[in-house]
Amino acid sequence: AMDWEQMEALKTIRAFLKVRTSYDVLPLSFRLIVFDTSLLVKKSLNILIQNGIVSAPLWDSKTSTFAGLLTTSDYINVIQYYWQNPDALARVDQFRLNSLRDIEKAIGVTPIETVSIHPDRPLYEACRKMLESRARRIPLVDVDDETHRAMVVSVVTQYRILKFVAVNVKELQKLRKPLKDLNVGTYSNLATAYMDTPVMDVIHALVKKNISSVPILEKDVGSVVNVFEAVDVITLIKGGNYDDLNLSVGEALLKRSDEFAGIYTCSMNDSLATIFEQIRKSRVHRLVVIDEESKLKGVLTLSDILEYILLEGEENE
Ligand code: ATP
């Protein structure tokens, strides 16, 4: 009976996502910061920090076209480039956003995210696109009727969509199965670090596994004491100073802003119903799954939850 209830709830969520569009998720009024691709990378970083945001759509004013989405991964790529070419600091300092592609080519990583969706398309489709491209956010791009030019309307994130679901779909209460009985999240081969791990090692792990956070464990004990996030890297290289990359994780975490919301944990006995309740109430980025002794069991990210609610039990996926 419980399986049936869980499946019914998933069907309701999917039906909901198919009849709503990205426009429905947007707040009535919002601002959008778009970067011209001729902007210096270090300036873009300061603007992001000043505005408390972590990504921005790019606009190529030479061709009047949308040029992809700038995210924390792009800054991490610059860091890797710098790490491989430590003598090139003067050059790194002069990088513009339109040189990011060359950097990405030079270090052999995936280029800037260019996937986008029309805001009128069903949310379900936006979600599928995000899962396929592993993007955590997707720009909404419309076309001007007269000029036929692309216009960036906004960006929707996985969090915004999941929160929209949490607020609007009351059947979520039926998602009562505990995590231990579900196939959602990652519970093996977890990337972790200690307070004295060099930050650069963690950055390499983030890139290698294409993940956005690493739980920090207490040595010998194995309990979770913190989480190092890709966004923590941004604060470290603020102002174009790369010296802080030599810090340990513990030292780097001291530089975190006072506004840091904290980390969220859950247990294997929690259900998605309670987790959605958490998402509804606070800006959860991910949940660290722990046992009664605070020992790490797994990581449950927003993309894991999105994948589960979209694809669990679907045939031919
Ligand atoms: P975000 O956390 O930025 O919203 P996301 O939801 O895509 O993005 P990621 O951290 O990129 O989350 O996770 C991608 C996948 O990797 C997920 O399946 C997640 O369970 C797994 N994962 C996340 N962190 C780790 C880790 N430290 N070790 C191993 N796997 C991880």
| CATH fold call of the largest domain | CBS-domain
What integer is the average pLDDT? 92
Order of helices and strands: HHEHEEHHHHEEHHEEHHEHEEH
What kind of sheet is the major sheet?
3 strands, mixed
Determine the number of helices (DSSP H or I, runs of at least 4 residues): 13
Structural class: alpha/beta
Count the domains: 2
Strand-residue fraction? 15-25%
Helix content: 25-40%
* CATH level 1 name of the largest domain: Alpha Beta
Number of strands: 10
- CATH superfamily of the largest domain, by name, is CBS-domain
Which residues form runs of ≥5 with pLDDT under 50? none
What is the rounded Rg?
Answer: 20 Å
Query: How many angstroms separate the termini?
Result: 24 Å
The hetero compounds bound to this protein are:
adenosine-5'-triphosphate
CATH architecture of the largest domain: Roll
